[in-house]
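Researcher: Can you fold this with LLP in place?
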Amino acid sequence: MDCFQYRNGQLFCEDVNLDDLASRVGTPAYVYSRRTLQEHYDRLAKAFAALKPIICYSIKSCGNVHICKLLGERGAGMDVVSGGELFRAKLAGVPMGKVVYAGVGKTDAEIRAAIEAKIGWFNIESEAEFENIAAIAKQMGATANAALRVNPDVYDAKTHAKTSTGKKETKFGVDIERARRFFEHYGRDKHLKLNAIHLHIGSPIYSADPYVQAITKALELIDELRNQGHTISALDIGGGFAADYESGASPDAANYAEAIVPLLEKFHKEGGTIILEPGRTIAANSGILLSRVQYIKMGGKKKFVIVDTGMHHLVRPTLYDSFHFIWPTKVSPMHTPTGRSKEMNLPGLELCDVVGPICESGDFLAKERPLPPVARGDLVAIFTAGAYGMVMASNYNAMPRPPEVLIDGGKAIVIRRRETYDDLVQQEREAVPV
Ligand code: LLP
């Protein structure tokens, strides 16, 4: 599942003892496992190999340029949603032809940069956006490829409302009816070649069924469009494959592929390109947030474990009520976890709220969570924090963001240094009249 495992009661990332690491880099710290990142990427590549897909890693899930670089070297393209993410992809040396660019609000400057870079496809979200990109391409005397983002009107009931996107009423893409008119109207543009379909139905999606439904609808649409004389050379099925927040709770790459690959074999054999946009399924289990217990406090009958990180570094629990397994890094044999789950059937656990230092009651990482006894100074690991962790971190309450450390076997490499107080005020050093 991942390379964060206990050895004789001590949590390791690959071959690095995390208590030793904390004494070198301090806490809080995001810690990633290179081997897990690579294995998760390789598993997807292997599971979908029959389709020879372009696997566009979704930078938004964990955008550190060193991580993008190592995935790029593995063969990944990138899914970007802003000029900033395009900049990261370039810096990571990813071939621009393997970059897809989604997002409902692309600005003119971002569009120009992407056309100049010769990215693979713009994923188009609306008529107005198509017209704007086509006009900019024409002005620049350039051509670009476009995929129309279609909402297949399917969704996974388990996906949180804030991250479900495949329904008809969403700000993303257009519904299937509108897609037909879209191609009639714009399908023959010379500068922005509308030659692909893009789907993204939400994140995380805990079963293959919604993909099967969405892809089936997309293939019907593609047949129709081809019959009308349009060229459809690529189908991008988006991201959203789940991660193991709880042991064994989500399908693995092979489970998704088993259901999806047979549907797409014909399209692939006829020369169609398949694109995947996985983020979380590669990054989530590859990272933890390492934190130190500051204080233990009672509030009425409730026990609070106050740690040196919180919603400012990992906003998912308070934003989506999401579950992240939390456990001390040093445990007795009796408390060595055999799996990660909400219910842990081990003796001597106590229900605790794990909370941070931010001045908001929403600043929690876990509520009513069974934990082995912990004391001031102990280290805890907040698991499966590699995706949508650091990228969504903020400086709220003027808290510097943690460093990011990449573990490679027995080596630890700081791939983003800890922010300083000086970093916090860098942009405010001058007051400039305009
Ligand atoms: N493609 C598109 C067009 C997307 O919008 C997303 C995610 C992905 C791919 C990658 O999805 P993934 O494979 O990582 O599930 N902050 C939320 C997740 C928001 C996802 C936004 N779009 C969270 O922490 O759960």
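Model: Folded with LLP in place. The two ends are 54 Å apart (CA to CA).
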